[in-house]
Amino acid sequence: TVTVLDLGANTSFLNFYNGKNLIFSREIPIGGEHLTHAMAKPITTAASTITITMDDAEKLKRNCGIPLGDEAKVEFLTDYGPLRGEQITAMLRPTLERLVMEVSRTFNYYSKTFNAPNIEELYLTGGTSRMRNIDRFLLLNLEGVKKIEPLNILKAVKGWAEVGVFKQELMLEQ
Predict the structure, then answer these.
(1) DSSP of 123-151
(2) What's the pLDDT at 162?
(3) Cα distances (angstroms) measured from residue 62 to each of 101, 140, 167
(4) Which of 62, 75, 79, 142 is 20 to 30 A from 85 (CA-CA)?
(5) pTM for the whole structure
(6) What is the pLDDT of residues 28-63, one digit of tens each?
(7) For the chain, how many helices (H) and strands (E)?
(8) Burial of 132 (0-12, 13-18, 19+ CB in 10 A)
(9) Are 43 and 49 in contact (CB under 8 A)?
(10) Least confident of 18-22, 52-56, 112-116, 160-164
(11) Both ends of the chain: CA-CA distance in Å?
């Protein structure tokens, strides 16, 4: 089974392929806009309390991603002063945890319904898949997953390019 998570702006799709055939697909109502909304709120910095606008939240999401490990201790310079990585992660965590929960539930459903082995590899596509450290966050939080990588036509699973799976996924991404 090849599993592809298409992380879009408003929704995500989790697709399961067996060879060239799409076996199961689920829409998950979480996307990049939800992460932006999670960051657009008042937050206390070392200097004062500031309100992060939607535009500022989008910039923050694009520039900082999900600060993990040592990055959580780093101060990111923003238009309104330094912001600690752990503050950024704390703003994103509830939405990211909802995403992980939905993906995990779908993995379990797929494995039980289709009598399939547990999912160990996941390919990411879609605009939100470019968010820094989203792959690392998912790898750390999705139980049993050993490998996550971007869906890349140059590293195509043998036979996919000929059967149009990539064409289908790339169309969804646009």
Answers:
(1) EEESGGGGSTTHHHHHHHHSTT--EEEE-
(2) 47
(3) 23, 21, 26
(4) 142
(5) 0.85
(6) 999 999 999 999 999 887 778 889 999 999 999 999
(7) 6, 9
(8) middle
(9) yes
(10) 160-164
(11) 24
